[in-house]
Amino acid sequence: MLTVQRMEPEYLVYPQSTSSPVEWIPELMQNCAVCGDRVNSCRLGCPACLGCIVFFRRSVIHSSKYRCLRDGNCLINFEFRSSCRSCRLQKCYHAGMKPSAVKRRDCLGPRRPSPSYSDPPILSPEADVQLIDRLIRIQNRQFEEHKRQSVSSPRRADTSDINKMFKWSINNSIEWASQFDPFQKLTNESQKVVLSEYGFAFLLIDQAFRTVSEKANGIWLLQNGTFLHPDYNYGQNGRVQESDYQCTRSHFEFVKSLQIAIQKPFEAINIDIFEIAALKSLLLVSPTYPKTNIFSEYQERMTSLKSKCCTELLEYLSVNYYETHVERFGTLILILGEIRTMVKALYNQTKMSDLFNSSRFDPYVRSFILS
């Protein structure tokens, strides 16, 4: 039976008068005065969603100066709120947002000490931090843990390494998925079905990002620093035993496909930490799982979360890659399809490769492969 630690989703709002979480505060059940999205707070002077609160706060703190390319007549609503920062900021002022209400917390110091790695992976519900920004904290800690447990020098991965990487990715993806309330509400059986695809996509993204970050040449790096090479026998110590032709051929095609389908696109755009976190989030909220309609009871919430992730990604790209943000967004969406394709290829490897022989994996890992 799958054990998932129940964590309160980060984007829920907690009332001041009680310690019990509620989905939304009743008196704020209205539309954002800027874009029409669901209201999160009135603390800046008018009813506003989390996205507009964060946008206004950053603009005030950094004294941002924006320029409109359409004479200040841009439509600002939920769908197009990121299309023009100048018009969005002006609409924030017109709606009643006050710069004096912005709290510059950095000048006052953090609200609480940073948690140690032994603390439960629950993030504080600070209302002005966006979802992907919160998830990046989890991602950075997971990456640091991977580095800490890496091999001292690169070597060819063996079956025990493959098994360990599956286990790491399953556990890491459980922690990640538990930040989304629809996943928490699923039965353990349904959670396992989700993770049978999502956990392996998580594995491929982490491995591709490490491969690109460390500029590995001709090899595919696993999270612990071991590697796969297209040549099945490359890096084997001692006398190399004759391998089955079909096995070596399949291994070659699999590793080359990983390099072409995921590594090369990551390298081409020099993918960054935020975009990696966005890919992981979008894979969860836009599922293609074997069990149809697995999130049917929470479809509206899943659609809202998908829209939120896309909006935050577009906002990030428009700030950091202004000239190419539309094309870059499209490239990232296309990469999602390639990752899903390679998840299927990874499953095929567990049926024909000695390295990925699932009968030699832990029962825990096998249970996800067979679910």
From TrEMBL:
Domain Nuclear receptor: 29-104
SUPFAM superfamilies associated with the record: Glucocorticoid receptor-like (DNA-binding domain) (SSF57716), Nuclear receptor ligand-binding domain (SSF48508)
Classification via Pfam families: Hormone_recep (PF00104), zf-C4 (PF00105)
Coiled coil: none
Keyword terms: DNA-binding, Metal-binding, Nucleus, Receptor, Transcription, Transcription regulation, Zinc, Zinc-finger
Cellular component GO terms held in the UniProt record: nucleus
First-listed, main subcellular location of the protein, grouped into a coarse class: nucleus
Record keyword Glycosyltransferase present: no
One MF annotation (Gene Ontology) recorded for this entry: DNA-binding transcription factor activity
Gene3D superfamilies found in the cross-reference section: Erythroid Transcription Factor GATA-1, subunit A, Retinoid X Receptor
InterPro entries: HNF4-like_DBD, NHR-like_dom_sf, Nucl_hrmn_rcpt_lig-bd, Nuclear_hrmn_rcpt, Znf_hrmn_rcpt, Znf_NHR/GATA
Compartments where found: Nucleus
Family of the protein in this entry: Belongs to the nuclear hormone receptor family.
Protein name in the entry: Protein CBR-NHR-175
Taxonomic source organism: Caenorhabditis briggsae
